[in-house]
Amino acid sequence: MSHSVEQEATFNLSDSASGQAMQASARALLHRGFIGAGGVLLIAGFGTDCIYYTTALWQWANFSAWLITVGLIVTFVAAILLLIDFATGRAGRLNTGSFVMVTAAALLSLINAFVHSRDAWTSVVPQGILLSALSTILLLIAGARGWSLAISRAPGDRP
Amino acid sequence: MRTTSLRPIAALISFAALAACSSKGGDPARQYGPNPYLPEPRAYLLPPMSVPEAIGWKAGEMPTVSAGLKVEALATDLEHPRTLYTLPNGDILVVESNGPGTEAYRPKDFIAGSVKARAGAAEKGGNRITLIRPADGDGKPELRTVFIDHLYSPYGIVLVGDTLYVANTDAILAFNYVPGMTRITSPGVKIADLPAGPLDHHWTKSMTASADGSKLYVGVGSNSNITENGMAVEEGRAAIYEVDRLTGAKRIFASGTRNPTSVAFEPQTRQLFAVVNERDEIGPDLVPDYLTSIRQGGFYGWPYSYWGSHVDVRVHPQRPDLVAQAIEPDYGLSSHAAPLSLLFSEGEHLSSAFADGAFISEHGSWDRSPLNGYQVIFVSFVNGRPVGKPTPVVTGFLGKDNETVHGRPVGLALDRSGALLVADDVGNTVWRVSATQGGT
User: Fold this and answer.
1) CA separation for the pair B16, B39 (Å, rounded)
2) CB B332 within 8 A of CB B288
3) Residues A50, A61: Cα–Cα separation, whole Å
4) B406 domain-assigned
5) Which residues of A touch B45 (CB under 8 A)?
6) Residue B114 sits in a domain of what CATH number?
7) Are the C-beta atoms of B76 and B428 separated by less than 8 Å?
8) What is the pLDDT of residue B110?
9) Residues of B in contact with A65 (CB under 8 A)
10) Taking CB atoms and an 8 Å cutoff, what residues of chain A touch B226?
């Protein structure tokens, strides 16, 4: 597991740093950027939850509700793109650890979207901010692992 | 309910439990009267909801009335009729109105918008007052005119001497009235501003006048369910105002009344009463809407507590000092029934059973399953106080399947013969309920 992650990281570095970018981007994983974008929105929701917790200013709770809702929509798009990555042979195999963490974060955030649809203080405290914190931890780890839920096929691999 | 410690596992288990079970409301009869049943408040992922589809009335369909009464349509094809008012010459005014509309602040607000549309509550109001002149005796209209046009979400209306006061959502207007008039074209004189935008969540401004005509009393609803739009927009809201009718000077007469949808004086004691719509989303049997006498300077709980000192944990920061002062209402009207009009009876016109007490229209729920309200009830009064259990007077607004709604009762008035008039803002009709015999 850690071996493959290392491989992936090395590949990514060479991808952006070297002159082989063109070759790699032709087979770049479609879902990865969307996981990153959705993840950032959901993490930002934890940030606005924290501000609401300290200030009790209602607009921060509204920001959280929007960030979580849009974050979930973007993550859903990423899930479809992940399927396309597999269907088109861009993805080699599932990056199981990241996949489990992002899926768990998405499910927690789905529940959290309903919690945040409550009115006033209890839309955030205590359950909403707790769910935001848990999904933030999972997403930060997934982010550190490069956001990718699949291992891309190395250039030259047979489909 | 007051736990704020973060207990992740317990919290997650409770989510699963909440998502799995749907909660049904109990018998509303337990929540009528001075000591309503109050279950523990709950928090939901999806609040209980049951939205009947508005289908209107087909030709020949009409509400059901209790024994000894008959019902007929006095006027149809109105534009969202809300408040009714009978002038001394017998002319009937119909305030056709709806809210000015609110912006969606949260993802949830988009869903709430479609819910309202399905239930027939999103329809545009006429922003006008229609005058109906019934022919003497038989209740059939001989004249129907647009009495005042181009109003702004009007609701409350009261005649004092030769001045007709209309409460738009943002101001009280005064119009000079001469008996027999069928149209007023003057723009009206603003005598006082009322809390309105931004947002204007509970937009209706109910209004009545004191017996001597010197003061107007105006019900102003909160700007949210339970402060979810911040405390700044609640400044001067969820209150009943006293307005000097000549100077326009106003002050808050009572507060903490979440949405005081109707204010009226009890005729024997001259005591001010109100019906108040209480908060949503903490259970199908919470919080009972209520009928209560209004004490000068009284605080009735919203937002910090309900039914006296029952704390609402959704409000932050909390105010134990105010909760300690909160007055328990006189008489529960059951949860989510949405009482919108309070009309004291004036003797035995309809029936000897309705001689002393108040008619109350229940607009009906969508925050609860099974549905509640959708009827006009009568609450008996003894010595100026509401007593006993209410009697249904006009029912049948719901379809037999309990999933469709023909109409929703709103404004009530007595016509000059003592017949009960009921405005129906989904059926766009004014119904006239009279005794089958007795020459009323």
Assistant:
1) 21
2) yes
3) 9
4) yes
5) 111, 114-115
6) 2.120.10.30
7) yes
8) 84
9) 106-108
10) 119-120
Please name the amino acid found at residue B191: I
Helix H or strand E encompassing A42: helix A31-55
List residues bridging with B362 in a β-sheet.
Answer: B339, B375
Q: How many domains does chain B have?
A: 1
Q: Residue B299's domain spans which residues?
A: 9-23+45-435
Compute the distance between CA of residue B71 and CA of residue A93 in angstroms, rounded to an integer: 73
Burial of residue B329 (number of CB atoms within 10 Å: 0-12, 13-18, 19+): buried
User: Token pair of A146, please?
Assistant: 């490069």
Spatial distance between the Cα atoms of B169 and B153, rounded to a whole number of angstroms: 5
Confidence of residue B259 (pLDDT cuts 50, 70, 90): very high
Distance between CA atoms of B47 and B317, rounded to whole angstroms?
A: 23
H or E element that contains A84 = helix A58-87
The residue-averaged pLDDT of B364-390 equals 95
Residue B51 within a domain: yes
Distance from CA of B228 to the nearest CA of A (A): 4
Is pLDDT larger for residue B387 or for residue A152? B387
Give chain A's count of helices (H) and strands (E).
Answer: 6, 2
Kindly report the nearest CA distance between residue A17 and chain B, in angstroms: 41
Q: Are B251 and B268 in contact (CB under 8 A)?
A: no
From the CB of residue B14, how many other CB atoms can be counted at a distance below 10 Å? 14
Distances in Å between the alpha carbon of B174 and those of B166, B250, B315? 7, 15, 38
Task: Report DSSP state, residue A154.
Answer: P
Q: Which residues of A touch B5 (CB under 8 A)?
A: 126
Contact A119 B15 (CB under 8 A): no
| Contact across the interface for B314 and A115, Cβ inside 8 Å | no
Tell me, what's the pLDDT at B223?
97
Q: What is the nearest CA distance from A117 to chain B, expressed in angstroms? A: 6
CB distance B314–A120 less than 8 Å? Answer: yes
The answer to whether B228 contacts A119, with C-beta atoms less than 8 Å apart, is: yes
Instruction: Flag whether B343 is in a domain.
Output: yes
How far is the alpha carbon of A34 from chain B, nearest alpha carbon, in Å? 21
B24: number of Cβ within 10 Å: 12
Residue identified by tokens 């203080």 is: A121
Q: Which residues in chain B are closer than 8 Å to A114, comparing Cβ atoms? A: 45-46
Q: What is the pLDDT of residues B137-182, one digit of tens each?
A: 665 788 999 999 999 999 999 999 999 999 999 999 999 999 999 9
pLDDT in tens, B78-129: 999 999 999 999 999 999 999 998 888 899 988 888 888 888 888 889 999 9
Residue B28 lies in a domain: no
Could you tell me if A110 lies within 8 Å of chain B, comparing CB atoms?
no
Question: What's the whole-number mean pLDDT along residues B198-215?
Answer: 96
Chain B neighbors of A56, CB-CB under 8 A: 316-317
Q: Which two tokens stand for residue B300?
A: 């009735």
Contact A130 B15 (CB under 8 A): no
